[in-house]
Known about the structure:
This protein has 467 residues and is an all-alpha fold. It has helices at 9-25, 33-45, 49-62, 67-79, 83-96, 101-113, 117-128, 133-149, 153-166, 171-184, 187-200, 205-217, 221-234, 239-251, 255-265, 273-285, 289-302, 307-319, 323-336, 341-353, 357-370, 375-387, 391-404, 408-421, 424-437, 443-448, 456-464. Helix 1 crosses helix 2 (33-45) and helix 19 (323-336) runs antiparallel to helix 20 (341-353).
Amino acid sequence: xxxxxxxxxxxxxxxxxxxxxxxxxxxxxxxxxxxxxxxxxxxxxxxxxxxxxxxxxxxxxxxxxxxxxxxxxxxxxxxxxxxxxxxxxxxxxxxxxxxxxxxxxxxxxxxxxxxxxxxxxxxxxxxxxxxxxxxxxxxxxxxxxxxxxxxxxxxxxxxxxxxxxxxxxxxxxxxxxxxxxxxxxxxxxxxxxxxxxxxxxxxxxxxxxxxxxxxxxxxxxxxxxxxxxxxxxxxxxxxxxxxxxxxxxxxxxxxxxxxxxxxxxxxxxxxxxxxxxxxxxxxxxxxxxxxxxxxxxxxxxxxxxxxxxxxxxxxxxxxxxxxxxxxxxxxxxxxxxxxxxxxxxxxxxxxxxxxxxxxxxxxxxxxxxxxxxxxxxxxxxxxxxxxxxxxxxxxxxxxxxxxxxxxxxxxxxxxxxxxxxxxxxxxxxxxxxxxxxxxxxxxxxxxxxxxxxxxxxxxxxxxxxxx
Length: 467
């Protein structure tokens, strides 16, 4: 068969067609090694592993001393979970090339898939003293993979750290190390490692990106933003850096900076629904409600199942006091995610605003029942009942809340309710307990019953607990 440029799609298609015609007859004529490798790659990419192995068998008939084909066969056998066959294949390859590192790496991987972790570690340990730094880095990466399988995430991080210290330009290790940081929560160690790597290579955008994540997890938001900015300045097509930078700016309430980041990203990427949703949030929190709604609408057009966009649209309508539109938006969000307590509570609040007390009562109760461990929704439910004069029912709700939720807010709310019922001594006793538990939250009492803010006895009691 004449030579072809097999990387060309048409030539590859021709090669595959010719090979399959020959293999059906059971006789494959002479092919160059390059042609066999192209066929193996093709079938592997198509997930036809048996077909790829068949090609290797034909290749080995022609190139019986080719270590490369034995290694490829072992690799595919490992993918097929045929570890014993893979090891046998690798042992044959070792006879041909006793010093080929790939053979031992795949053998360790095969042992790992069989659960022979100690043997795999021993094999890798025996290799370490014989390798240059780049090879050592590859061995340490496989060691990290075994630790990951064993769910020993601290050791996984340590192995990847050592791999990067051996070879700071190991891009695969750089991409893997952040997962190990997340799983082991070694954020401080990650900051130290990535600052070192950046000193070695200031233009490593992945190192800057990983550093940004570590800073974000440590709530060092300014440092995180700066690191993400360096990542996308170095690689202006690195979409994840723009997204994560924008989200950290949002979390840190730096809405103008978030918008700047998102607008820069729009120069290079087509936005998806989540991206437009985040831009909408920036405008909403900057009180640019009309603009925010336009971005939420675009987000919904791209993804009609974006429940968060419907919810935030409802929040915008509330700011505009457009109650019917808010109800419609919240209901859309709930149709998509019916068990989101914040959606239910928001809808309850709107029904309260339009004086539909019955519907509001049902929804406030539903929100509390949906997230019984969350104090906030019990407080909202009880506050609503107090506002409509159902004081005894509000007390019952607060007593029920204490079965499921913990928080001094419940105590302050009960204090308010007792004041409203005229149970002054009980209220003062509860207030004393609440102040003892958390003095700083006493302002919440005045939000619920503003009239006690000028009560001399209440003022004296609060002052007596001031630190």
